Protein: Acyl-coenzyme A oxidase
Amino acid sequence: MPDFTDRLRPSQPDGPSTLAREREQSNISVDELGRHLLADNGFLERQARILPIVQREALFSKEKQQNLSRPERFKLGLARAKLLRRLADKHDWGNLDYKMAQYLVDDVSPYMLHTEMFITTVREQASKHQQAHWMPLIESWRIIGAYAQTELGHGSNVRGIELEARWETDAKEFVLHSPTLTASKWWNGSLGRIANHAIVVAQLLLPSQGSPRQYVSHGPHPFIVQIRDMKTHQPLDGVVIGDIGPKYGYVTMDNAYMLFHNFRVPHSAMLSRYASINPDTGIYTRPELPAVVYGALTYVRANIVHHARLVLARAVTVAVRYTAIRRQFHDRDGERTGPEMAVLDYSTVQIRILPLLATTFALHYTGLAMRTIYENTRNEFERGNFQTLAHMHSMSSGLKSLCTTLAADGIETCRRALGGHGFGGGSGLIQLNNDYLSKPTVEGDNWMITQQLAAYLIKKMTAAVQSPNNAAADEIDRRFKEFLSARCDPGLNLPQHDVLDSDDDIAKSFTLRATVLVFCSARFGSVGALLGVC
Amino acid sequence: MPDFTDRLRPSQPDGPSTLAREREQSNISVDELGRHLLADNGFLERQARILPIVQREALFSKEKQQNLSRPERFKLGLARAKLLRRLADKHDWGNLDYKMAQYLVDDVSPYMLHTEMFITTVREQASKHQQAHWMPLIESWRIIGAYAQTELGHGSNVRGIELEARWETDAKEFVLHSPTLTASKWWNGSLGRIANHAIVVAQLLLPSQGSPRQYVSHGPHPFIVQIRDMKTHQPLDGVVIGDIGPKYGYVTMDNAYMLFHNFRVPHSAMLSRYASINPDTGIYTRPELPAVVYGALTYVRANIVHHARLVLARAVTVAVRYTAIRRQFHDRDGERTGPEMAVLDYSTVQIRILPLLATTFALHYTGLAMRTIYENTRNEFERGNFQTLAHMHSMSSGLKSLCTTLAADGIETCRRALGGHGFGGGSGLIQLNNDYLSKPTVEGDNWMITQQLAAYLIKKMTAAVQSPNNAAADEIDRRFKEFLSARCDPGLNLPQHDVLDSDDDIAKSFTLRATVLVFCSARFGSVGALLGVC
Structure:
């Protein structure tokens, strides 16, 4: 409907001219910076190749999605995810291509648990024989899998989950059974509507060696289980599945609950790369390191760390551009003529946004470092060396907490810096915030897993104090030992670090500070004894 | 559909038994505390009387509202608001009764701008003659009004709004005209769908005394304007109205944009209790104090301050109850038998939740104090005394910023303390958070209006320094003068305040600290010169 507003223009200077002038003032080469940051793994080439393909698809338009009901929004997310898979087949995309397309489409895929946790768990914890059977089915999406670990009553304390997998020696089957309501699997994504299979984590109950009628728990183990009929898609007898209802974000994810009633699965259901049961004797073989069963969680944490930079970069970009364009009030010390002051020129805006711009770069390099640690550890792991697993696990825990807190709080700081318009859908920060606010609590609550890192560091420091002559196992060890051997050396005094002029000295100071804090925590149980280091 | 899950119970100890035991351990009388906090203005009696009435209405059930589309959710909010009005008529509710019912129904009313800003502006800024005409129409809802002040380009800087109201001497009419796109009224609630009238704030343009063909702006003034046809509900010719699209929260509010094209309104449209134009001579009479035109905003800010306590109380109640029930991990120093530890017993949870419990009480007393300041000022105001207006305005600005930041950040801290379940709709914190996240930026951005308080305090301090013998005008003045006369008195030394054992001394210390900070800011332009007070 044409009306008089069609002829109206914004008051001057408008957004495009303001941004053009701001950009002219910078001597940074955007292309060069882009290559420095994102050329790794062919990110920029991949983006340039895939963007036009997804841009052509009307289904990916975001124009009306915020007005939809939850069921409609889920269906839209599902249709997009299916289209992405078809595009992947058509263009013969590899895994990184597919992930780039997902990133550009900017919607949580209902298949995410299938393509991440389900496949990763089978790849890492299934025996070669199991992998040969399952991987073709998974990769072709002939089966769709969810990851069912968290329960209504237990998330962080995985060892406390209640679902039972009782081994019946005679039938040579496991019996999955939920003894209570709090044993309900809960939050499990890709499960409520789309999965027909799931990795189900349950307490492995085996007959006691002494009295075979009694059962002993051997802790949580993963099972691969068909949960729905392949034709009717109805849950199988003895399985109940349902939607857990509305959430803060993740509106396109079918997070679900699931309970079992004496549901029988075959011996082959237990993923047996590390732990296994001899079907004839019932003898249980333990994993070399119990920690390996948490491999998929560590993978997801490392991914979250690597992802945080892109999330905060988006929020900061929105904030910088908007506050450069937005003008409000004349400078009180100026002549009060001409355009009002750009909001970005207020110190009260700069102290909020500019540190977050710097944080984005810090998150970038942290994400790359995390990825390197993960890949190196996986390589060692494939060679049968599990020594660096604890290091990777503690790094991924500490950094997952730090990076997601910085990014989540940073998005909200950016949103508020947009003033009223930050509350509007046009800001582009609403779904970003709603989805990302899951990150500080998901895959290990930030407050909880930070303590895993702390416990690890204290253990390492205690070992270094007790056995000063052992060789350093890794970089943390090396730094701890350096500190311990030199700790009463006056050369360590902080003022000798030229933190104002030397980047290296800033890093050294932070390293020393962290080491001293660990030392005091390990030795005195608190950091209050800082002055008693020597 | 009955199934095996119907027979399942939660693992023990369950929620009700845990809460019962926690409550047994407290010797605080809930009833007495409730009366102490909420008996004022008959809050508890009113709640007890109105709760059963609204509980009977199926329309107020929240069960499925989070699954609705935005248009459906708006219609539900509208239906609820109409029902509330019918209930008010049926039960002969007064204004406080009506507000209690709204609070209990816990949905943003699409009529909120009508019942708050629209009616308040007419009551405060319309002449007696205008009030006699409009108030019966407004109170009976025969007309529905919005409040159209904020524009796409200007929110905080009200003086910068672009909509023009040009006085045409010959026609004795005002011509409302939006010269640019950025002059679009924007964010105005109750406007997109339901209002047929609006308070429209526009730059008053009058012919220059010297050259009548030139116009001079006399700043923003409020006009009461019919904007839609009373029968067809279509916008009148020369008016364009539309929805501004999805928002973070306020899903039941029809926030809108509005533009005018040479739209003529009669002389009587300008609210003329303070400012007015003689229709015959065109002579403009200024308000005694220009600040009075912001009266409605101050009213809303004071209300926001008073409201924050109830919002945070709700979030803290959810967090305390949930973390008392939720158990995770056995005490590492305990025997690792029996139930796991309540999450509330972890110090990492207590340091987040318990200060917010205390903050809730602080917000409560702050809210009461704000209300008292507001009511006293309004009373003075009715007697023609505007002297305390600046005090009220600065208090409402500073406290609006402080209280909404504490409450908004507090809700999110509570939500995260619930772990994964805080991300779920069952937490009850999602709509609360989504709606409340408007508060740090709406009705004066928190970072901006805090500076209004700072400027006011610095001005007061400067006056106290320059004229030490003037009588103190208010409590702030008195404290400033006390400080100035005694500032080199060693008795002021902080250590003499027994902040660990004396509540009075804590308050005195905070007062002294605030006063010293204002003094340093006023005298040295920064607080860095703290040591140079004497």
Chain B is about 45% helix and 10% strand. Chain B touches chain A through 71 residues (CB under 8 Å).
